[in-house]
Amino acid sequence: MSESRVPRLRRFLVCEPRHFAVQYAINPWMNPDTRVDVDLAQEQWTALISAYRSHGHSIDRLEPVPGLPDMVFAANSAVVVGGRVFGSLFHAPERRPESSHYDLWFKTAGYDVYRPGSVVEGEGDLVWTGRYLLAGTGFRTTREAHREAQEFFGHPVISLTLVDPYFYHLDTALFVLDDENIVYYPEAFSPGSCEVLRRLFPRAVLATRDDALAWGLNSVSDGRHVFIAPQAEALAARLADQGYEPVPVDLSEFHKAGGGIKCCTQEIR
Ligand code: ARG
């Protein structure tokens, strides 16, 4: 297990949490009575960006918009593979207006944005493995959107059904370590979907419910460094045994909205 893991430098799009709050409840983690410490949220988010930068990753930023408290969750606004941008259509009406701001950012940066006809929440549910897109459905993104994504990208899209409302986006139950391997929490998936993952990734790291509840599956890996919630200590230790280097980043304020490290990070490929 002492293979040396090679990081690949990434380009991430992020959005500062200046207007972050929990004002509505669209997943079981959210309670509108919860007070968010905005200063702490800013500090935690800034620490994430510093961690990315200090590991060589480049950061693009989009201006946050008042009245869109979930806009910090950049992962949800698109999925970009090979420079092609597949935009989002949010499930919750509260989040729908985010799309036009992200689309404008992409257009200004020189990209065409595909507008989907069916509900899809970007990298929250569409996870690029390097070979295909793993695609979550059950709570947010629709199967129709999976089909659209396959037509758009021409890459195989593997539909997976999520069954636990706490893990309502695929990126809360699974993340990609490198071109070969992934980590996932099997019980978040229907039995058939679980079997599909087992066949595709026989050597995957299997996480526990505790790892998932600690936001350990909402991690970002560059192939070597794994930016991971410090609450997911047990999972981080297992990844370290396999030659990965965990980089703990605490986004506890964002957990109150049902989000973590990956949710705040969109990769531009
Ligand atoms: N409050 C947001 C929502 O429910 C959190 C989004 C988290 N993002 C993610 N990629 N899982 O939509």
Automatic annotation (TrEMBL):
Which Gene Ontology MF annotations are present? Answer: dimethylargininase activity
**Keyword annotations:** Hydrolase
Keyword Hydrolase applies: yes
What EC number(s) would the UniProt record show? 3.5.3.18
Enzyme class, spelled out: hydrolase
State the InterPro entries in the record: DDAH-like
Q: Which family does it belong to?
A: Belongs to the DDAH family.
PANTHER family reported for this sequence: DIMETHYLARGININASE, DIMETHYLARGININE DIMETHYLAMINOHYDROLASE
What is the protein name stated in its UniProt record?
A: Dimethylargininase
